[in-house]
Design goal:
Blueprint (H helix, E strand, L loop, with lengths): L3 E11 L16 E5 L5 H12 L12 H8 L5 E7 L2 E10 L4 E9 L8 H14 L1 H4 L8 E7 L6 H7 L3 E11 L16
Parallel strand pairs: 5-6
Antiparallel strand pairs: 1-6, 1-7, 2-3, 3-4, 4-5
Helix pairs in contact: 1-2
Organism: Streptomyces ossamyceticus
Pfam families: Acetyltransf_1
Protein name: GNAT family N-acetyltransferase
């Protein structure tokens, strides 16, 4: 018999670019945020597994190369990557939806880069790019809403980070889910001591 636990999912939104409350860029670090303009299933899977390995991101682990490629080539799907001194530190994935909505489908940092003020900056930057998505994709309607969801399996700071950036809660769902084992990143991989 598998064990089960309660999972709380919070859905949050912004309905105007003025809702965004940007975080300051980290001081003293050479942090850059760059769009990955060439669809690369290998790179996107690396980011997904590296960021989500310890917080139970498992839904895309079974995707084939072709499935990744199909997803990444959809008009308006964008991946924005934060680099700390040339090393990938985390990413934001944007996906346009009907009616001018843009979902922040994935956002997070590789464990070794958490707690260094990169996350708030990356989320601010990614949210701003969601608001101006149609400027880069003229066939898309202007963005009217940016939304995302987070859950109790994500970082304990995730919900507060979204709210500090101006996202407002619009739905909470509580379900019972089968427990799963975090797939990684791999045994013994721990962030450096601060």
């Amino acid at each position: 018999m598998s064990s089960r636990s309660t999972l709380t999912t919070w859905s949050l939104e912004q309905t105007s670019p003025g809702d965004l409350l940007p975080a300051a860029a980290p001081e003293g670090d050479d942090v850059r945020i760059v769009r990955a303009e060439v669809p690369s299933p290998e790179f996107s899977r690396f980011l997904y597994a590296s960021v989500g390995g310890d917080i139970l991101w498992i839904d895309r682990l079974s995707w084939s190369y072709a499935r990744w490629q199909e997803h990444l080539r959809r008009p308006g799907v964008e991946t924005w990557v934060a680099y700390d001194r040339g090393t990938p530190a985390g990413y934001v994935e944007l996906e346009p939806q009907d009616g001018g909505a843009v979902e922040i489908v994935y956002f997070g940092l590789i464990p070794a880069f958490r707690g260094r003020r990169i996350g708030g900056h990356l989320l601010s930057y990614g949210t701003a790019r969601a608001w101006d998505l149609a400027e880069r994709w003229p066939a898309l309607p202007p963005t009217k809403r940016v939304w995302l969801h987070t859950c109790s399996r994500d970082s304990e700071h995730a919900l507060a980070n979204y709210q500090r950036r101006g996202f407002r809660l619009f739905d909470t769902e509580v379900t019972e889910e089968a427990d799963v084992v975090a797939p990684g990143p791999w045994p013994g991989a721990l962030p450096p001591a601060s």
